[in-house]
Design a protein that fits this description.
5-stranded antiparallel β-sheet; 6-stranded mixed β-sheet; 264 residues; SH3 type barrels; alpha/beta; globular; Rossmann fold
Length: 264
């Protein structure tokens, strides 16, 4: 049984019908319908309030283990060298997730600028933002979902926001055509991975059309910011740092964006 009418906006809950696998925050209640947003996963959903169970602090997603793993510091040889990490522009339709990603960049000591904008409004503005902030890395993310009833997996019209991500990637590639000079990380939960890569993304979600963690795009961006500009990245290693690995995000081998200097 669910918690019913004792639940209110802001409460943390799980869905009985989905095996209580994902923690959500209630963002709105209208009659008996609850609107939900994933606490850690980039997912928006809705369901009958009777399907909800109050989250009781069990470690359903092993979140603490994951956060501890991604917080491990990068061991840079600071005795003799100095480092200039790549600059990150993070564009996100979700204000809460954007804030979490910006905090993660701060902890990693990399320069970042965050912009909160709806998926459909990114494309018309992205060239201006790239001109203004001159990043080495741009993250284009937010929410997405594949609607099986609307078409096949390779039909971009069957996705909520993939076409907007594709348009934004293309505009960014018109601004800077080199995959080495501008690293593009794009997509949300279940995005049309192949089309995002074809449009010019270095990294994109989601090869297996699964949900991705709120921090996954930021983890990739940070690793690229702190990877040597003269060396090819270890692609598998970088993808394995994310919550769901190669099922959630895929990409192409490229070089990093960090300059290494000597002496300090």
């Amino acid at each position: 049984m669910g918690d019913g009418m004792s639940l209110k906006v802001g409460d943390l809950v799980t869905r009985n019908s989905h095996g209580n696998d994902i923690i959500f925050k209630i963002t709105n209640i209208n009659n008996n319908e609850a609107e939900l947003k994933g606490l850690n996963v980039r997912l928006i959903a809705s369901c009958d309030i009777s399907d909800l169970k109050r989250y009781d602090n069990e470690d359903i997603e092993n979140e603490e283990v994951f956060l501890k793993r991604i917080d491990e510091p990068l061991n840079l040889n600071r005795d003799d060298y100095f480092y200039l990490p790549g600059k990150i522009l993070h564009i996100d339709s979700d204000k809460d997730y954007l804030s979490r990603c910006l905090d993660y960049y701060d902890k990693s000591n990399v320069w970042s600028m965050g912009i909160n904008e709806k998926e459909e409004n990114i494309s018309p503005n992205i060239k201006d933002w790239l001109e203004r902030y001159k990043p080495n890395i741009v993250v284009i993310t937010g929410h997405d979902v594949y609607y099986k009833k609307k078409g096949a997996l390779n039909d971009i019209e069957a996705y909520k926001n993939s076409k907007y991500f594709v348009d934004s990637i293309r505009k960014a590639r018109e601004f800077e055509g080199s995959h080495e000079k501008l690293i593009i990380i794009a997509g949300g939960c279940g995005s049309c991975y192949e089309e995002l890569i074809k449009a010019g993304a270095n990294f994109a979600s989601s090869p297996k059309r699964i949900n991705i963690h709120a921090l996954d795009p930021a983890i990739i961006a940070t690793k690229m910011s702190l990877s040597d500009i003269n060396k090819n990245i270890d692609l598998k290693d970088i993808l394995e740092k994310t919550k769901y690995g190669k099922d959630g995000i895929g990409g192409i081998i490229t070089k990093g964006t960090m300059y290494v200097g000597y002496p300090r």
